[in-house]
Amino acid sequence: MRHQTIHRDNVLRGKNIIIGISGGIAAYKTPQIVRLLKKSGAKVRVALTDGATRFVSELALATVSEERVYRSIFPPADTSGTDYTRHISLGEWADAFVIAPATANTLAKLSAGLCDDMLTALFLTLRPRKPVLIFPAMDGQMFLSASVQRNIATLTAQGCRVINPDSGELASGLCGVGRMPEPESIVASLQNALHSTAATSPLYGKSVVVTAGPTREKIDGVRFISNYSSGKMGFAIARAAAKRGAMVTLITGPVHLETPPEVTRLDVESALEMHDTALSCFKSCNVFIGAAAVSDYRPLDPSEGKMKKENPEIELTLVRNPDILAEFGLQKASGQLAVGFALETQTGLGNARKKLKAKNLDLIAFNFFDRKTSGFEVDTNILTLIDKEGVTTELPLLSKDAAAGQLLDCIEKLCVYTPGINPLKNV
Ligand code: PMT
User: Fold this and answer.
1) Counting beta carbons within 10 angstroms of the beta carbon of residue 420, is it exposed (0 to 12), middle (13 to 18) or buried (19 or more)?
2) Quick one: pLDDT at residue 128?
3) pLDDT along the chain (427 residues), means of 10
4) Whose CA is nearest to atom 18 of ligand 1?
5) What is the pLDDT of residue 80?
6) CATH, domain 207-296+315-414, list 3.10.129.10, 3.40.50.10300, 3.10.410.10, 3.40.470.10
């Protein structure tokens, strides 16, 4: 078993940030914002207005972000698949949106809900709990005008963080308020916003244990029984929980995935190893989420070396593996939540409900199985969430990251509304 621990002090590491740039002189400083964010381990994408391209080049931004940049809401002619709705998928992808500089014109469009380019469309598609930071920058008189102040008030009332510009020398040669803060200060504001957003999650500071991936059950020294699980769903849950400030332990079978930032990863191979590792986390965890596809059986007596091909037929005796999630569910104390998955075909909702009950779970995700879109290996999933009161939430086809976000939203509600669970105790 290999251990990998990652320190939890850099809130930007692994975050997805969109920088929206509108057409003011301060736009020339934005490649530096992108560079600082990238250095901190964030992924950055840029949406800029036509006006912004007069002050900063798309090539410079694409080069420093190492991503294509977005301007129009309309996709290019050679677009295919989900790229037609990229303003939605980018909005889903982002953890925060920074608009710097925000001109008077862009503030007016944002406050009115207009959407005629990628920047303004993204603003409308971001889910409400994601931080939006707006840095107005313009001439001092413009900034203090009644219209601009009214638009700022509207955006603030919507939950945006509008950061007042600095005072100093302006492009006109005049002195006054209106300068965009320096890139370092913009990055610091974003860090503060991300810290306080994570801190508002009921999962903040809680211990979340996630199982992921397949297990391998040895037949002999070179062969095993396993399944098609890639670990993508479990890793997406671990990543999303860490972003909400949880202390995440990810117990994973053999997969080819990078450890999500701020997550402690424990690699295991067999169901027995996963069981023993999980057992050591039972007492200290607040939420246990079983997303692994654990083999139900293992060969009774695996041979050490390679079995010889001597007989036309062989018999393999399989014995039951312990059910890790059921063990947790049936022994959990108050203040602990058990969450499971049930991969089933279309008719499997009833089976998922049975597993919810039999394993004493607080929530189960019925995972519809369809080779092309949902279940093992693919990047998308179709889940139906059923809580122990029977409340059922059908989710559409979503990316595994988005599905993980919805699952955690549901777990957060359980933390808050279930008597005896709020507040979760660090047991
Ligand atoms: O890894 P991916 O390729 O992204 O695919 C994701 C997934 C399809 C594997 C995942 O979303 C999923 O559905 N996992 C559960 C698979 C399943 O059908 O499990 P099950 O019905 O055998 O078990 C029900 C629950 O008990 C699961 O939460 C499972 O983790 C848990 N369990 C099962 C058996 C066992 N011995 N120990 C367990 O903890």
Assistant:
1) exposed
2) 63
3) 45 94 97 97 97 97 96 77 73 93 98 96 83 94 94 90 88 85 95 86 92 98 97 97 92 96 92 97 95 98 91 94 98 95 87 97 96 94 95 94 94 78 44
4) 343
5) 62
6) 3.40.50.10300
pLDDT for the residue 395: 94
Q: Which ligand 1 atom sits closest to the C-alpha of 293? A: 16
User: Which CATH number is correct for 16-199, 3.40.720.10, 3.40.50.1950, 3.40.50.11540, 3.40.190.10?
Assistant: 3.40.50.1950
Give, as one character, the DSSP assignment of residue 25.
Answer: G
Q: Kindly report, as residue ranges, where domains of CATH 3.40.50.1950 are found in the chain.
A: 16-199
Cα–Cα distance between 171 and 177 in angstroms, integer? 11
Q: Which atom of ligand 1 is nearest to the CA of 231?
A: 1
What pLDDT sits at residue 425?
A: 44
Which protein residues touch ligand 1 with a CB less than 6 Å away?
211, 213, 229-234, 271, 290-294, 296, 321, 323-325, 340-343, 355, 367, 375-377
- Round to whole Å and give the CA distance between 56 and 353: 56
Please tell me which residue in 227, 286, 360, 381 is annotated as part of the active site.
227
- On whether the CB atoms of residues 42 and 16 are closer than 8 A, the answer is yes
Type and span of the H or E element at 194:
helix 183-199
How many angstroms separate the CA atoms of 419 and 44, rounded? 40
Is 214 in contact with 271 (CB distance < 8 Å)? no
The ranges of the chain annotated as CATH 3.40.50.10300 are: 207-296+315-414
According to the model, what pLDDT value does residue 5 have?
37
Question: Is there a catalytic annotation at residue 227?
Answer: yes
CA of 38 to the centre of ligand 1 (A): 35
